[in-house]
User: Which sequence fits this backbone?
């Protein structure tokens, strides 16, 4: 069955706007004049709509997003009182839930971002409460959680993590970075395979409603991988997915065989393209919001610290070399300039040691980059995965980052134009649920460097602005390239999957601030219409 989509303005990277997409089965077989002049079995008039390739999310945490949907909805609330009311309401409506776990609160709503267990105690004191901050490097817990985890005055900060404390040194209720968060979370009931399958199903629905048909889960542990396998087998995984398997300085040596086995297990699925296990996730540092991003120069609000490097230099090089030798792509979280430098140094060493192959290493976030390190992205073939929705001066930047790192460093974040001009390859990712999974909400932000929907005002470090077509490219073709899927998706091109979005406005005819208001009229995946919430 050949279907012709016509009467549309179709955009794809590197092409002039064209009309006409001819599909057969799951694939595009002609575009433009060739499509319009070819034989077809049925035609669909798109009534002048704007058509783009479906979005590809190059860095996200879909299972975490799905899990959060099952807890108290605190994302976007503007005060502690609002958060407490939501937690209290959830507790009343879920009396049998042994642990209340939710997210994600905005740490910038209070000075310093240290939330107190006693505040949560005022609404729930009989069972543990754990709330994730939007950076997902921080949790806020109540006293019951502290009690069950045996966290006391004598508890020392774990290596690579911090426990916020009151003036008398007692734990306050805020924990930063995975090693500290684990002191609490390891006591919580484990998520089951079945509950994570439901989280995957929920995440897929949210993605499809947003026009995303392919993503990478960039923090996958073994049981989470098993949930993806189950979801793929049951049909609950309804978008294409890459998995990036998490390793740590203390576990990586024992993970080599496990990661290989998981890759083989997914490759044996009837549709091996549905899930690809080809990436390894490394956390090089923490987050600026938590004061744990690794910086070359000290934090201004705490000159005794430069943040946290999670890996020692030699250990990181050894781990990269080992996984790269097994033909796994490396995917390194690095926010501070010292962490970015360490990641680049380690990738350079890895390339020196191992034979050449199409490795496409990724550094995600790269919020702060030393000037001398900018050209190294191109030289080493490193893909910079950037979060477009972070490219404006949001409350977290103004209230938390600015006092910690000063105006010069704060205004040097997300140097997209400089990276592009240096020849770096850029791809976009949402980092959902840290921020919204909706690409249309983010696309215009790096163009005017203002918040979504904001028309007036000076853009944040406007010299780093990019064009809307670049933004579209980074969320489609470039993300496909990062994920080794450029031969199947990311463009409206002959031979690729017929995955595309029909929009109610032409993105190239409106102002950047209006992009977040554009609606999706229809979504096609593998040539078929997808039922979505419009």
Assistant:
């Amino acid at each position: 069955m050949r279907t012709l989509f016509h009467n549309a303005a179709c955009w794809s990277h590197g092409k002039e706007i064209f009309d006409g997409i001819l599909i057969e089965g799951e694939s595009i077989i002609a575009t433009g004049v060739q499509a319009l002049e070819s034989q077809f079995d049925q035609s669909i008039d798109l009534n002048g709509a704007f058509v783009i390739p479906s979005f590809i999310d190059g860095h996200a945490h879909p299972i975490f997003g799905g899990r959060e949907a099952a807890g108290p909805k605190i994302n976007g609330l503007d005060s502690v009182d609002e958060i407490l009311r939501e937690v209290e309401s959830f507790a009343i409506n879920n009396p049998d839930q042994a642990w209340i776990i939710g997210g994600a609160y905005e740490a910038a709503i209070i000075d310093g971002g240290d939330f107190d267990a006693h505040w949560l105690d005022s609404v729930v004191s009989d069972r543990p409460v754990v709330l994730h901050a939007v950076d997902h490097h921080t949790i806020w817990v109540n006293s019951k959680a502290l009690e069950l985890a045996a966290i006391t005055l004598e508890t020392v900060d774990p290596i690579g993590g911090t426990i916020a404390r009151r003036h008398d040194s007692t734990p306050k209720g805020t924990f930063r970075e995975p090693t500290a968060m684990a002191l609490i979370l390891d006591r919580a009931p484990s998520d089951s395979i079945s509950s994570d399958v439901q989280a995957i199903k929920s995440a897929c629905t949210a993605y499809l409603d947003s026009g995303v048909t392919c993503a990478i889960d960039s923090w996958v542990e073994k049981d989470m991988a098993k949930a993806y396998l189950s979801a793929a087998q049951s049909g609950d995984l309804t978008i294409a997915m890459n998995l990036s398997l998490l390793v740590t300085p203390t576990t990586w040596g024992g993970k080599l065989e496990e990661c290989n086995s998981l890759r083989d297990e997914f490759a044996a699925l009837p549709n091996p393209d549905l899930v690809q296990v080809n990436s390894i996730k490394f956390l090089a540092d923490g987050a600026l919001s938590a004061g744990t991003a690794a910086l070359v120069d000290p934090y201004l609000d705490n000159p005794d610290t430069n943040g946290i490097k999670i890996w020692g230099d030699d250990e990181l090089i050894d781990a990269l070399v080992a996984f790269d030798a097994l033909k796994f792509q490396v995917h390194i979280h690095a926010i501070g300039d010292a962490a970015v430098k360490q990641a680049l140094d380690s990738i350079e060493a890895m390339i020196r040691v191992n034979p050449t192959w199409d490795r496409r290493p990724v550094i995600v976030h790269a919020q702060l980059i030393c000037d001398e390190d900018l050209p190294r992205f191109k030289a080493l073939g490193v893909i910079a995965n950037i979060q477009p929705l972070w490219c404006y001066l949001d409350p977290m930047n103004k209230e938390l980052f600015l006092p910690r790192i000063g105006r010069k460093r704060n205004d040097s974040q997300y140097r997209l134009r400089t990276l592009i001009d240096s020849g770096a390859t850029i791809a976009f990712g949402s980092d959902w649920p840290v921020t919204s999974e909706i690409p249309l909400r983010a696309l215009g932000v790096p163009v005017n460097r203002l918040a979504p929907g904001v028309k007036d005002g000076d853009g944040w470090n406007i010299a780093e602005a990019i064009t809307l077509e670049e933004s579209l490219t980074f969320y489609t073709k470039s993300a496909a390239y990062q994920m080794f899927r450029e031969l199947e998706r990311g463009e409206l091109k002959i031979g690729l999957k017929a995955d595309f979005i029909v929009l109610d406005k032409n993105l190239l005819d409106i102002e950047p601030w209006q992009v977040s208001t554009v609606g999706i009229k229809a979504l096609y995946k593998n040539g078929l219409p997808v039922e979505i919430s419009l």
Remarks:
- Residues 193-209 form the longest helix (17 residues).
- The two ends are 27 Å apart (CA to CA).
- Residues 485 and 505 are 28 Å apart (CA to CA).
- The first strand starts at residue 2 and ends at 10.
